[in-house]
Amino acid sequence: MTKALDPRTKLLIVLCLSSLGLIITHPILLTFVFLVGLLISMAFKGDFFSLIKRFKKVLYLFIAMIILQSLFTTGGEPLVEIGSVTLLTTLGFQRGFGYLMRVLIILVCGIIVATAKMRHMVQGLVQLGVPYDFAFMASIGIKFLPLLVEEIQDTFVAIELRGIDFKKLSLKAKLEIISYIFTPVFAGALMKAKKLSLSVECRGFRAYDQRTSILTLKMNSLDYLWIALTLTLTIWSLYLYLIY
Amino acid sequence: MMMPFIQVNQMSCSIKGKVILTDINLKLEQSQCVALVGPNGSGKTTLGKALAGILPFQKGSIYLQNESIKEKSLSSIGTVIGYLFQNPEKQIFASTVAEELSFALKYKGFPADEIEKSVDDMLRRFELNHLKNASTYFLSQGEKQRLAIAALLMNHPQYLILDEPTTGLDSKRKEQLGHLLDSLKDKVGMLLISHDKSFIRRHAYQTLKMEGGQILHD
Ligand SMILES: Nc1ncnc2c1ncn2[C@@H]1O[C@H](COP(=O)(O)OP(=O)(O)OP(=O)(O)O)[C@@H](O)[C@H]1O
Ligand SMILES: [Mg+2]
To answer: What ipTM was assigned to the predicted interfaces of this complex?
Structure first.
């Protein structure tokens, strides 16, 4: 039932969630925004936890960065002390926690967007007045992401097959190789995109100025309900937040 | 008794639930050039990948120099086997031709002048001198193919698995590649996956036919 929600409604929800995430700085309120987002994504049958599993390594990196950053923040009451050295202050903890919540809010937003079909998302954007080219490009861009990941994996295989044990290299060499790989991978992706757009044009894409579409999206009462609810809640919480 | 260089026992492999290879038995010796032929989609590339340790398989075993390939790291396989991807673009990752060739030696800690010398030597053998500092993205198909093979040889592998090495090469370059392979034959074993009948007839010692994920025995 909820799966049939209009992609435009989902876009609005995501927009509201992310603006709340941007404007609010209080860690507990951010947690609340994240939890609401999580509930919504679950209502749309998005799978947050499998995404977390897939991005485990990147998340570790994030968390490490957040911890480092909190450790170097001074100000507020000391929270953890070793001897006379303050390791962590309340302010550092608050900031770090806030960052973590923001990352999670972004992930939840991504999941909500991902529950819509790509074709529907493009159509939703078009009906919102976004030029078809842009909407189409955005959808292609999203499709390219997994390809990029695959390409990077392939490159690592190719490197190891040259007899180089990546794990045993020094940190400097590792960073060197990584920086040295990413350029060709991204350049390769760009070239692929260029070729794709050429081949798409060769097949007559954009032959006519006015595209018609067999698929038109219509909002139903459920959409309006969600939209009304989202807007009221967002505006209300922003109002309260800015007042107090 | 001496085990062959590569031995495959009752190996089966499926990808995403689809069976691609069934009950493969194979013995490959060093200092032999064996050709692998078969129609499109018969599983040649998949078998080559399994032999190079890139593709996990579910049943049976593959031994490389008496050691199960599952126990070996990709990098240790890579020092023994040179694997040419069917699409050479997959294995070219550096931004210039010279960097691509010097890559492995550089990270193995060879001195710079020695690397320079072997790179120049290899460039000459593959007639790529004029492209030494060229960007790898803009190479022609045949140039990429030659660069990929040259980069493999920089490692002095004991065995080569070449997935369609002659695709994209003109007849002169094909002949040169043939000579090069012939000159390596005494030291290096080869599995030559190819549709090029005359090339196989000229250079392979034995031909294996694949069909529907199986090796046909006649
Ligand atoms: N990653 C994959 N996922 C699903 N199916 C695959 C995958 N890789 C290979 N296959 C299938 O396995 C079969 C064998 O593929 P393979 O690439 O080994 O054939 P091939 O003999 O090398 O063909 P060609 O002569 O065209 O190179 C094909 O039917 C192919 O569709
Ligand atoms: Mg193949």
So the answer is: 0.84
